[in-house]
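Cross-check.
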Amino acid sequence: MAELTHLDSEGEAHMVDVGDKPVTRREASAASDVIMDVSTLALLRAGNAAKGDVFAVARIAGIQAAKRTAELIPLCHPLPLDRIDVEVTACDELPGVRIVARCAVAGRTGVEMEALTAAAVAALTVYDMLKAVDRDMTIAATRLLTKRGGRSGDYRRENAPA
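Predicted model, tokenized:
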């Protein structure tokens, strides 16, 4: 099998040909944090955000983003995702919101970028919905948590939730 690279024989960027790879179950999870003032977190917990249900809108934004990853990330393969879960949870330790996105597919390439995109866009949505009350929020630590399936094997970040 040819080496997987985004460079062709002339050194130009191109989409990797995964046509010869077997279809296998692939899963990935990623997270992103939105750090905010304690008063903003209290407003969010009370359900008093002026733009509505921040948790629900961020969850839907993350799901939509995962489905459109190939349109957002150059050279990313479009995937018919089997599952997308986005959890948006208030987190006192930050203080702020922690987003965890999980994606799965039966395919020839992994879903790490879909999970990362979902987490990042959900975090941007939280920021957008609360920026009028807290412009000092920080979107932080967008990271891959787990990856299963594919030729490169499994990956689990230390201290990743189960």
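Residues 112-130 form the longest helix (19 residues). The first strand starts at residue 24 and ends at 35. Passed to J.P. for a second look.
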